[in-house]
Amino acid sequence: MWQFFHKLGSPKWFYGIASRFMPWLLGSSLLLMVAGMVWGLAFAPPDYLQGNSYRIIFIHVPTAFLAQSAYVMMAVAGIVTLVWRMKLADVFVKAVAPVGAVLTFLALFTGAVWGKPTWGTWWIWDARLTSMLILLFLYCGVIALGNAIADEKSSARAVAVLVLVGVVNIPIIKYSVEWWNTLHQPATFKLTEKPSMPPEMWVPLLVMVLALYLFFGWIACLRMQNEILYRERRSSWVKAIMGTGNARASAKVTD
Amino acid sequence: MLKLPRLTPRQESQPVLPALLGVLRRDLLANFRRRQELFNPLIFFVMVVALFPLGVSPEVEFLRQSGAGILWVAALLSTLLSLDHLFRHDFDEGVLEQMLLQPQPLYLMVLVKVFSHWLVTGLPLVLMTPVLGVMLHLDGNSIGYLCLTLLVGTPVLSFIGAIGAALTLGLRSAGILLSLLIIPLYIPVLIFGTGTVTAVAAGLPVGSYIALLGALLVVAITCAPFATAAALRISVSNS
Question: Is the ipTM of this complex over 0.90?
């Protein structure tokens, strides 16, 4: 266990292991995504109240779900950065922040598209919507601070502090639909209760959530690999991979 | 055998309270010596408030309805602008490095520094509010509650803002970056602050709003200095 943990500190080791996992992540996510999308859009029964317009849920809920869990993952990585000074945790935060921002934007956008036919308006200043907007701002702040500090180590720790401070927003988003009387419907999935939807609806939704998690894993690995290549651009193993180093360096990597 | 000198500092000879009072006294004194910087946020506060009747509508009905929101937003922006000075002078003059080297806990030092900053920037805003409230045609009851919410809310703004000020210390475009980092965290304070006054105007009970603001204050005082202290160490080691 601890050996695994120590190995995680090595960018080179991660680069290799990620290359091995990534095709599987991408393949399974695409497979599940196509299956969930076709199932949800074509075969799931229409809602008795909203008709077919509810089908955007198959994109809206997974993106909103992942936008929040991406932030929680960043916060965990932030703790790792501050406590163990692990380089890879910071690589993760930097790589994932823009992905999280895009997911949050997608959740807000699909929510607006869904809101127009159901609520009759693109946007309302309701607790769930506003707190998701704050999440988008937080992602922007994290990206901006990361870019503003040139020194790699200080940038890592400063961003980690900011991410941890911003994590107070996550429970607010989670419980906003229960604390305040809002237009937004309560959570679709809960760990302790059965979903209020029939299984023909929530099973494809769960498939889509899984697919997006796998896709997130793939894109996180890809972006982390890029970040590692850039940061380690002066080391011999990167030069060997990129074909810019001399023959001796590439020989070293192969053995 | 070689005799090594004792390296452990003697704890009992590091009194905390006099050091904190010293920091408070020094900060207040430094602020009063730079009087212009003291007045700038206050003048800014008044100017922003003046923009709304001129820019949106001078009608009594509109101002009565949105006066509390205007004053809160103006107070928020004014606090945001004043935050840049919180650590900047100490950082430039090297005082901050000395502070980090002190044996007293940095947490308490930061607490006192932010408190003294609030005394010279937040408190004047609260004292100025009744005058501006009258100019925005708010009734007496609303003004009273508005002052109360600002009295509880502006320290929260200062404590949260201190984290951003510490994180952006020594960066080139610190001002705009600071706003970008801190405004999302200010939104809950703003919501509960203006919510109180709206509830007063609608004749609803306000206890829960004020209790929530008080809770925010307690959380900000206890937790924010930790983050600020950590951020200060990062920023100073970076320079």
Answer: no
